[in-house]
Specification:
Elements lengths: L7 H9 L38 E4 L7 E5 L10 H11 L3 E4 L15 H14 L5 E5 L2 H12 L6
Parallel strand pairs: 2-3, 2-4
Antiparallel strand pairs: 1-3
Family: Belongs to the AB hydrolase superfamily.
Keywords: Hydrolase
InterPro entries: AB_hydrolase_1 (IPR000073), AB_hydrolase_fold (IPR029058)
Length: about 160
Amino acid sequence: VSAGSLSPGMLRWTRSWRLPLRGLGPCSLSFCRVPVAPSSSGRSGAEPRSVLLSYKLLDGEAARPALVFLHGLFGSKTNFSSIAKALAQQTGRRVLTVDARNHGDSPHSPDVSYEAMSQDLQDLLPQLGLVPCVLIGHSMGGKTAMLLALQRPQPPR
């Protein structure tokens, strides 16, 4: 990941925020809450409200981490239909394609921050039983994946 792919505010935050090596301690069955960077939406200190994302889940082995595809700006979950289907067939993994908020079939929201998009996934993935998973993102989806990985470096045990 190059420093040029992160906004100056996010870069400052990632350089100054450190997690203990062993994670954040005991967690519930879903993700535990961790601090997020100051919201680029102007709602300082408030946790972003998640929206119910539209998705397509291709079935596979539950024992192996699912592959989760996150599209770029102006994209949708259908951008990854062919590769998702091929990977599900060839690897036997579950494969999830997701429409980000304000994209495709997902609801619209005035909060378009990466923090909000990360929160949407933090709520969706445990509901679908996809923790841990492999995040694969393009452009905006890649930045969302990086923020989620910074917020959740280790899945709950």
